[in-house]
Amino acid sequence: MNRKIVYGLFAVLIIAVVAVMGYSILSNNESDNVNNNTTNNGNNNSTTDENITDDNIGSGTGKTLVVYYSATGNTRGVAKKLAENLNADTFEIVPSDPYTDDDLDWNDDNSRVSKEHNDESLRDVELESTTVPNFDTYDTVLIGYPIWWGIAAWPVNSFVEANDFTGKTVIPFCTSSSSGIGNSADILEDLTKTGTWQEGIRFGTNPSDDDINDFIDSIS
Fold first, then answer.
1. How far apart are CA 95 and CA 157, in angstroms?
2. C-alpha pair distances (Å), 36 with each of 24, 27, 49
3. Which pick of 3, 13, 34, 93 has the fewest CB atoms within 10 Å?
4. Cα–Cα distance measured from residue 20 to residue 35, given in angstroms and rounded to the nearest whole number
5. What are the φ/ψ torsions at residue 68 (nearest 5 degrees)?
6. Pairing of strands 169-175, 196-197
7. pLDDT confidence of 219, banded at 50, 70, 90?
8. pLDDT confidence of 60, banded at 50, 70, 90?
C-alpha cells in the first residue's frame, strides 16, 4: 500500500480518537454541572420551605428589659436583682414632679397620694421620659411597681399608655408589705391593649435571693 495513504489513514484515525475523547469529557462535565445545580436548588428550596416561615420572622433579639417605678426604693432593689440575674437592661419610670416622703403619707388625707387616690383625675402623672432607647429590640419586658390602694402606683399608667408592646411578652411584678398583686396587671393591660401579658407576682419589701431565683425560674 502506498506509504502516503497509510499515513493519511493513521492521521484520520488519530483525529477521530481525539474527537471522541473530547466529546466524552465535555458530556461528563455538563452532567456534573446539572447534578450540582439540582442539588443546590434542592437545598435552597428546603431552606425556604422549612426555615423562613411566618412563625419565625421577626425583628426581636431575645433581649429583656426591666422597667420599674420605685417610690421608696423597695421596687428598685427588686428590679436591680432581676436585671442582674436575667442579664437585662433597666429603665426607671421617674415622675417630673417626684414624690416626697410627705407626698407618700397615705395616713394624711391631705397628702398628694391621698388626694390622687380620692380624685382619679389627678393621677395623670407627667414623667421625665416614656421613651426607652431601642425599645423595639426587646422581646420581654418586666414591669415593676409598688401597690397603692390595691392597684399599681399610677405613675406606671403614664408609661404603659405611651408605649406599644405589640410582639412583646410583658411580665408584671409588684412590691408590697401585705397587699397582693390583685388585678393591677389587668388594669395596666387594659390601658395599652398591646403585648402578651403574663400573670404577675408579688414580692415582699425585701425578698430573698431564693424568692428572686424562683421567679426567674418560673418565667425562663
1. 11
2. 19, 14, 20
3. 3
4. 23
5. -155, 150
6. parallel
7. confident
8. low
Q: What is the DSSP letter of 151?
A: E
Q: Which is it for strands 151-152 and 169-175: parallel, antiparallel or unpaired?
A: unpaired
3-state secondary structure of 57: coil
Q: What share of the chain is helix, strand, coil (3-state, %, to 5)?
A: 45, 15, 35
Report how far apart, in Å, the C-alpha atoms of 190 and of each of 184, 185, 186, 197 are.
10, 9, 6, 10
**What are the residues whose beta carbons fall under 8 Å from the beta carbon of 187, sequence distance 6 or more?**
151, 152
Nearest to 176 by CA among 141, 211, 212, 152: 152
d(CA 145, CA 76): 9
Integer Cα distance of 118 and 145 in angstroms: 20
Residue 102 has pLDDT above 50, yes or no: yes
Query: Can you tell me the distance from the alpha carbon of 138 to that of 87, in angstroms, rounded to the nearest whole number?
Result: 12
Q: Are 167 and 137 in contact (CB under 8 A)?
A: no
Euclidean distance between CA atoms 11 and 59, whole angstroms: 70
Task: Tell me what pLDDT residue 179 has.
Answer: 82
**Which grid cell is 122?**
389627678
Helix (H) or strand (E) run with residue 109 in it? none
